[in-house]
Amino acid sequence: MILQIAIKEFYNNLLTARFSIGFIMCLFLIPFSLVVNLKDYREQLKGYEIERAKTEKSYQVRVYSALRPEIVRPPEPLSIFSKGISGNAENKFKIRLETWVSTADGYETGRENPLLMSLFSMDFCTILVFVLSLFALLFTYDACSGERESGTLKLVLSNPVHRWKVLIGKLIGVCLTLLPVIMFCYLLSALFVLLAPEVSFSAGEWLRVALLIPVSLVFFGLFILIGLLFSCCFRSSAASIVLCLFVWVISIFIIPNLANSLAKSLVATPSTEELRAGNVLLIREMGKKINDYSQSIIKQMKPDFFYWDGKGGEDGYMEFAGASRSTMDFRRQFNEFREPLRIEYAEKKGVGQKEYMDQLDAQVKLANRLALLSPTDVFRQVSNALCRTDYDTRHLLISESLQRYRDDFIGYLKGKKVFSSYEYFTRQPPGTFMDYDEIVRVRSGGQFNSAAEFIKWRKEHGGDRSPLNKVPIPGTAITDYPLLELTDMPTFECQSPSIPGVLRQSMGKIAGLIGVELVLFFLTFVCFVRYDVR
Amino acid sequence: MLFHIILRELRSNILSLRMLLALVLALTVFGLGTLVFVANYKIDRKEIEHSSQQEIERMKAAAAESVSSLANWGFNQDFGPRSNSFISNSREDNLPVRFMYDSFKVDRFFVWPGRNPLSDSCQPLDWMFIVSIIISFSVLLLAYDTVSGEKEARTLALSLSNPVSRGLVLFGKYVSVILSTILVLVPGMALSLLIILSSGRIAITRGTLAETGLFLAAAILFVACITAFGILTSVLTHRANVSLVAALSLWLLFVVVVPNTALYWAQKLFPIERMENVMQRINMERENLEKGMPEGWRKNSASLVENYAKLENEFLASEMKVRRDWYNQMFSQYERTRLITALSPIAIFEYLCEAAVGGGYLRFRKNWLDMNSFQLQFLEFVKAADAKDPESPHAFSPNSWGISGKPVDFSDVLIFQEKAPSIQERFSHAGLYLLILFFYTTAAFALSFVLFVRYDVR
């Protein structure tokens, strides 16, 4: 009997204008959203390739002080399905001794035009949620009230059939109508992904997409029950549709936006400017220590600061060749003190940064928790988690993977004792270092016998260094030496939440949805049993 | 007669459930949105004042050091939250609000760095949001069954049997929907203003009131447009539930589909040069300029400072030419994309609000132009300060040591002041969009008129 009713409902639904309009909407919007997202993904991939090429160059170094690994994360292919926060955070990181890992590094957003940040784009899950939840409501809002208005409900119930059977039959009928549409949308999207040459999903990724299906079924079930409940609560279908639609607007537009802005005003993030000011103080303190130390060893070692070929850059990069022995010795001793100190201060700066990050986390967590009031947002959070574009994945990347890699990298440098070695800043073998006097004698071809003579001559000739170009000394240009072989460098491994982990985390949310559904079903049942069919 | 029809329709609207729900929802969101705005505004304001204060301190330090430092240090100019952004935030959370400049150039703009990168981009619940989502939705719910619903209830045939023209009936219905929407909108706005007044943190000036008036005008035009579409869906079919589906599809198209495809159109139809290319071009120009210098100029100490300054100025000019060109590409990409999104009246309404409050992209563009002319004045000022110093080599260029090393009195230093867009600027920004909105409204209404005249009331 139930089956009969269900099949009748199914046919009825199939023949309505709303079914054809809704189906055409899906047919038009789903491919469109996929095309849009594939295009965006392709753009991001282009940017990623360029960045990765640059990153590979960053490992072609001659000295350890130039070695600062750069990490570029490839764009997430699953973001085609659910974008999450993958669009608004940068995906390039540089491991430095001086700074603790954080997102505050640079402005790499993957989009060339910063103005485009203000344009929104939708993903597959958003479209699915918008169209199909509306669809679910439109099929159910008049299930009961509409039949009462047209007078058929009386006829149906005059048959020897229990009311609950009619209700369940209607429910199954609507589910039967929606199920093929949902499956059709997923199959269509899978087809698009399969046909797109630049995207190839692994088995695990397909599994994640497949897991989206049961989650979306649970989600749409909720909207079906909301529609059914209102339909059984009201005598006129006009009233029930109006209520359904208001619930829909509140759930999709109002609650998520309100939750975000409310969280912002409830959990104030410390200002970035204060953070910067705190860092400036620490940097000053460190600078003073470094300066004091260098003064003291300059007094002690009396280096002559004769440089020949050299280069320098950020985060302690320096590379020399052909400098005098005392200069090289000074540099070595200076680095031995300075680099560990910089690492120590990075930790100190990290404390403030960690606090800042924790506040950002707290804000997002609160926003997510507030947004749980809306079933749409529950679905969004679960689908983002499945598609690795949610906040947890990001958190794991920043505070676990990148941090561990930074520690590994520093451990690697320390293990090789590079801070106290000459290789940190020069590849010239220490045996070939020369004194200033000797360098001047050889280079000038005997024009000067000592450094003092040359310095005096140079002063008289306006700082001219050209006599030193007379006789070249081999091995005094930085390019004379080969690149470092970095076979034993630690490699970066990105952790992302595993599928069982995601499921365990999302279990509560899904269980909540199912719980609400049970309550709604019970209420619908009560209302329907007491429904006045006249 | 028209008055009669309007009054009757209005009465039935006011007594309907949807009107009540719309009113409750709109009032709640107006209230909550404004409360959240007041709290967030305080936080944002504090942050921006902090950072502006620091920039002033840096400027003071530069002025105390030397003319050269003042000329060469880069400064940030931040454009903080507007006090009228409770009317419309105009996506300023996602638009660049920080410009970097020194006396030679304004060369970069950034989105506010204090934004939480972990949170989803959300729309603040400002008036514009409420009107473009809740009100437009309520309008469609009020309008979708004005004709098809009456036909189903069989009252349409009765009304039309009276000696009254069909056009007048349709117009009466049209006006009454707009009027009932205004009855929802105005109390909400009043509530919101009341909350702001009682919070005491934000002063409501005459300018704000004028902007409120402009917003109300834009909202009424927008509501008129959406109502015309709603009535169109109603006369399109003979059954109310089909009109409802049509109205909702139209709404989804306007609210979700068109605005959300903007990024796609931008990338697909108006691609711009990649940053790497631009940088490469800048570097190539640099190399060429360096080659063009006379042989051995670096060793000629007599004219070194002049030559160096000349080269640096040439570098600057060539780089700024490339950069300006690139920025213009960005602006035109963005503007053209906006024109495409003008397919949706909701996007148009957003741009109208932007003009009404003088925010969003209008503000960005104005600030960008003002900032560029300010930089020229700033350059003149620094040059004048340099000219006063007889010891300076007067070789004025970026990164040079040819500028005076004497300190400057900070009280003379020019500081940028943001100016709100004038009325003319606002109207010229809104002009095209207003025209498109008028076109949509008249087209939709004319079409529904034609269809209604031929409507079978049986």
TrEMBL record, chain A:
It comes from the Bacteria. Keywords: Membrane, Transmembrane, Transmembrane helix. This is ABC transporter permease. It holds the Pfam family ABC2_membrane_2. GO terms for cellular component: plasma membrane. One of its GO terms (molecular function) is ABC-type transporter activity. PANTHER family: ABC TRANSPORTER PERMEASE. The chain crosses the membrane at residues 19-38, 119-141, 171-197, 209-230, 236-255, 510-531.
TrEMBL record, chain B:
GO terms for molecular function: ABC-type transporter activity. GO terms for cellular component: plasma membrane. It comes from Candidatus Glassbacteria bacterium RIFCSPLOWO2_12_FULL_58_11. Keywords: Membrane, Transmembrane, Transmembrane helix. This is ABC transporter permease. The keyword Membrane applies. The keyword Kinase does not apply. The chain crosses the membrane at residues 20-41, 125-144, 174-197, 209-232, 244-266, 432-453. It comes from the Bacteria.
